[in-house]
Design a protein that fits this description.
- The protein is globular.
- It has one domain.
- It is mostly helical and 85 residues long.
- It is built from 4 helices and no strands.
- It holds the Pfam family DUF3243.
- This is DUF3243 domain-containing protein.
- It comes from Niallia nealsonii.
Length: 85
């Protein structure tokens, strides 16, 4: 099963990457920019695998760039307390 097929596994995967980036000294602004780039890549290159990803893809597709940045920042907040730290 791909990590994209399970919402909880996807959040844990993102959280692990977030914690790694923070441990390497990446600041909040850089993390937010990377989250935006990942969101943009996923929306253009990857088909949603579950209902939550479909909702995010729909929101992303109608959002302005500023709103997309907000979605990316919210995803970072969502996963901050997930993963293995």
């Amino acid at each position: 099963m791909s990590i994209l097929e399970s919402w909880d596994q996807w959040k844990d995967f993102l959280a692990d990457r977030l914690h790694h980036a923070q441990n390497e000294g990446m600041n909040k602004e850089v993390v937010g920019d990377l989250a935006f780039q990942i969101g943009d890549y996923l929306s253009n290159q990857v088909q949603p695998k579950n209902e939550q990803e479909k909702v995010l893809a729909d929101l992303w597709s109608v959002a302005s760039q500023e709103e997309q940045q907000a979605i990316a920042n919210i995803m970072v907040k969502l996963v901050q307390n997930n993963g293995s730290n």
